[in-house]
Amino acid sequence: MKRAVVLVIAGTACVWTPPAQAKEFGVRSPEGREIYKKDEPFGAVANQSTRRVVAEVAAGAGPEGNLAILFGVLNVGFAGLDLYGGAGFEVNPARHYTGAARLYGKFAGFRPYVSLGYLFVDKFDLGTFTHNVFAEIGHAWKYHQTYHITASVGLRYLAYIGFTEDSTLKKDDVDPVALDRAVDETARFVPLFALRLSRAF
Q1: DSSP, res 11
Q2: 149 to 50, 142, 197: CA distances (angstroms)
Q3: Which of 6, 50, 94, 195 has the fewest CB atoms in 10 Å of its CB?
């Protein structure tokens, strides 16, 4: 219990203490090891402009569904390439699970990106699922050092439609010929639009 209280106080001090004063505060690990050397400036210890992980909230008609949360790793392999994984909900209802790679560029103050990814849709109410691939183009706006807003448009391709064993569409009162025809006539290309709010850590 005491250790938890110490950790909470130390963590609060780190968050609320300005960076220039953090070294003077004398923050130490619970085992007593000093985090900073006495002659080491804070700027040499932590580069506050370098972020590796991002959390993102998405809304709209994007690959993640109507409302979703994503987590990403920034600058994988080289600057500008980010990897994301997410989960979200669609109102029809369905659960969406995505994995995507985004490649950002910088041109005269603009930050466009292209994205390619995979989407698994679980329509649990009907007992169907789909495998999809998608592509997006978008733009990111930075409104704080660690906060961004992105807007994107794109297209997803429905590659496969499957049914679970307990699907309501596989019951005896459903005409299998009509079901097959409905599957064949399902639109394979679906437009996408999404707004995303992200915070890097």
Answers
A1: H
A2: 18, 7, 5
A3: 50
Write the single-letter amino acid at 17. Answer: T
Taking every pair of Cα atoms in the chain, the longest distance, rounded to a whole number of angstroms, is 79
Q: Which residue bears the tokens 């437009």?
A: 191
DSSP-assigned states of every residue in 92-158: TTEEEEEEEEEEE--BTTB-EEEEEEEEEEEETTTTEEEEEEEEEEEEEEEEETTEEEEEEEEEEEE
Yes or no: say if 130 and 156 are a contact pair by the CB < 8 Å rule.
Answer: no
Q: For residue range 28-56, list pLDDT tens digits in order.
A: 555 555 555 556 555 554 554 567 899 99
Burial 145-168 (b: 16+ CB within 10 A, else e): eeebebebebebebeebebeeebe
pTM for this prediction: 0.74
Q: 200: which 2 tokens?
A: 């890097």
Pairwise CA distance, residues 7 & 51, whole Å: 23
| 159-179 pLDDT per residue, tens | 999 999 999 998 888 888 999
